[in-house]
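Title: Prediction job returns without error message
Component: structure pipeline
Severity: low
Priority: P3
Assignee: unassigned

Description:
Job completed but the reporter wants confirmation the result is attached to the right record. Sequence as submitted:
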Amino acid sequence: MVLLGRAVLAETQAVAKGRFAKVRKSFIDTLRVYARGGPGGAGQPRYGGIGGQGGDVCVESKLQTRALKAVRDAFPEKRFIAGAGGNSSHKLLLGRKGKDVVIPVPLGISVYTDSGRLIGEVLEDGDKVVLAEGGEGGGPHNGWSGAKGQVRNINLDLKIIADIGLVGFPNAGKSTLVSAISRATPKIANYPFTTLRPEVGIMEYEDFRKISLADLPGLIEGAHINIGLGYKFLKHVERTKLLLFVVDVCGFQLSQKSYFRSALEMVFLLNKELELYKAKLVNKPAVLVINKIDMPSARDRLPELMDNLNNLPGG
């Protein structure tokens, strides 16, 4: 494996620092919200009536909701308060339940408390997780007074769900590959960092089978310690079923001051970054794609790369 030196990390940090400042603000994959369940309704001691349960605040995954940014834009205050339960009366002994508040979110949301405890996840269309429960209605067990609803600050964390995740250094050709085999239209240009947010494309077959591909932002050395897009890249790798390592046969150099990395070194570095971020990722099925072999400079480098790959220890 190729080790990361302090000099390399320092240079990478300097190049990446300014380049990604605006990206971190424009792409939303985490959102903190305030949720309060509705209070329970008052009971009716004279007739033994029970107050209605307060409404709940919950998230529900919707295929139509494609991004967490859409949730933030639709609810800029990020405060969700459910309705109060109805009071019991001689005409309606069992009070009505308070109105629930349902927040539509994209698939792949994990719900965490401020303390970091995982409450639940919504991974399929229609999945629901309660953020804050409504208070219990008033009755003989609580002095006929409705209880207050649960109050929580909640963190919604999005991780892209896709069958295949494309992994590679910047300008490796991931976006070109996705646009060629799917209906996605990612930004493509002959310079690094054209993909600044995950793009999902769909491959459709004549028998109506579909395969989703996630074009993930280019990884750079030190991503596991949050250099560059860092965690914004790596977290989205976790839920893909297969990793597609896309490597430029001609190698990669982040800037004139950075070290040049050969294709073989990039293969090692990509694996190492994933391992350092989360060790179990190295056990995920993976396929290596050698890209840009039609370039004039690839004529000599491709045979050398293939020979090195075929003679790796344990290969």
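Comment from assignee: result matches the submitted record. Residues 1-25, 186-196, 223-230 have pLDDT under 50 and may be disordered.
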